[in-house]
Design goal:
globular, Rossmann fold
Length: 345
């Protein structure tokens, strides 16, 4: 009887150990499997539903690039959208997120005067962006980071995320990579050689020991998204009368606009239109495909370095903490005073 009791205790102990081991692997091993799941791609459109479901078991970050389609000689009209998508891709790869492909057709602003520009109504674009964000939140993406690469896009995104907060009580973030890198001391204003000169085109065509050329980062963005061949060479696109003039002020079309800009840090506090395509154009591109490839490689490497060094994991953590603060500390106290969700009314 005593031996049977001892055997029962041993079996019970063995069973408990097996159960504990199973629980350990369930709570740690399986989660580790999901956490270390090697994403085949970070582009949401290229993922299978199973891949997205697997990702959402462990994380909730998505980057949303907001570009446009506008005149921007000597580049294709999608250049600013490509830059937004490239940043979104690099941030998603480095900080364990997914990203949407560029939302191409958005308000253009001053470049609507060019017939290569696709213009979208500001309010319609805001509704479109709002609807996409609501869907992403329903899917499980609680940390949404909007990356505008175009002045009016940033202005448009701000009221959208404020309305989303009113309706969903979820805080989202606008990320302007250049501003973040400057705040982190990683780069200066790209349009000012020493931080004090007026904003102008430098027309430094090639990179050298003194720094990157003016085209390295835009070409690098095309390389990051795998579309460098879409950019024409200088021999094809450097057409006299269509390019910005070396050293020309960016507001040379209306020199007194600097006075207007003193009133607000927002883009174009008094909106405007361009007259000629050269008023929104860069300098001449490198002449050959080989030169462009070299500039693109240097630019893409610099973009990756900036993303690696900016420490954006801290911002993602604080965004999560802000969300938890609103849910745990704000809503229980004053939730009844906050705006209702317009979709539930």
């Amino acid at each position: 009887m005593l031996q049977l009791q001892e055997n029962t205790n041993v079996l019970s102990e063995n069973s408990r150990r097996k159960l504990n081991l199973l629980l350990f692997f369930y709570t740690h091993g399986i989660n580790q499997y999901h956490r270390r799941y090697a994403m085949r791609t970070r582009n949401l459109n290229f993922c299978t539903n199973h891949e997205i479901e697997t990702y959402l078991r462990e994380n909730d970050v998505i980057f949303i690039p907001i570009g446009n389609c506008e005149m921007h000689n000597p580049y294709p009209v999608d250049v600013e959208g490509v830059q937004a998508e490239a940043w979104a891709k690099l941030f998603a790869e480095r900080y364990d997120g997914l990203y949407l492909p560029n939302l191409s057709y958005m308000p253009a602003g001053a470049t609507v005067s060019g017939r290569g520009t696709v213009q979208v109504d500001m309010f319609e674009a805001m509704r479109y962006l709002y609807t996409i964000s609501r869907s992403l939140l329903r899917q499980g993406f609680r940390r949404q980071i909007f990356i505008p690469s175009h002045g009016p896009s940033a202005v448009m995104a701000l009221p959208v995320i404020h309305q989303l907060l009113d309706d969903t009580k979820a805080p989202f973030l606008i990320l302007q990579p250049g501003f973040l890198f400057q705040q982190r001391g990683l780069m200066e204003n790209p349009f000012r050689r020493n931080g004090s000169e007026p904003m102008c085109w430098h027309h430094k065509m090639h990179s050298d020991e003194e720094g990157l050329g003016d085209h390295a980062m835009p070409l690098g963005a095309y390389a990051v998204v795998g579309r460098l061949d879409a950019v024409p060479t200088g021999r094809e696109a450097n057409i006299e009368g269509t390019l910005g003039e070396d050293g020309a002020l960016l507001n040379g079309w209306f020199p007194k606009h600097d006075i207007i800009n003193e009133c607000s840090p927002l883009h174009a506090p008094a909106p405007f239109f361009y007259t000629w395509e050269k008023q929104h154009a860069a300098g001449p591109l490198p002449e050959t495909r080989e030169e462009m490839q070299r500039e693109a490689e240097l630019g893409a490497a610099r973009m990756r370095e900036l993303v690696d060094r900016c420490g954006f994991d801290l911002h993602l953590q604080v965004l999560r903490e802000l969300d938890e603060h609103i849910r745990n500390n704000v809503l229980p106290v004053v939730g009844g005073n906050l705006p209702e969700d317009r979709w539930s009314i």
